[in-house]
Amino acid sequence: MLKLKIxxxxxxxxxxxxxxxxxxxxxxxxxxxxxxxxxxLGFNFRINNSLEIPxxxxxxxxxxxxxxxxxxxxxxxxxxxxNQYDGEFLLPEFRNLDFLWLIKDSEIGESEVSxxxxxxxxxxxxxxxxxxxxxxxKNKQNLIL
Length: 145
Description:
Order of helices and strands: HEHEEEEEEEEHE
Largest sheet: 6 strands, antiparallel
Helix content: 10-25%
Radius of gyration: 15 Å
């Protein structure tokens, strides 16, 4: 019998082909942070329970909420992931990060990403914002929606 196997590496590479990822240090609750981003930057992030990421580790289930925002007039999707839930991490290699901001758009330019980073930094509670390169992420399959 032929067994089919999912190639997670190829799947992750396809997912990140037209994506940019920011790592954010902001010791706030996920709902406080998304509210702050909406207020300060004029976004309209909403939690999407159907995108919530379940991970099973050590016979326990962990649930990582995901917020999404669709940029009107562009084919641009923004996802805001909570990187920590009950002592576990969505991306364990980036334990210092509280949130991950994924932008899906093949047309996003370097200046737009730089501008977003600059606009995020003055939000109260935000301590650090930096871009993460997909090739440096070991558990990128955890971010695939």
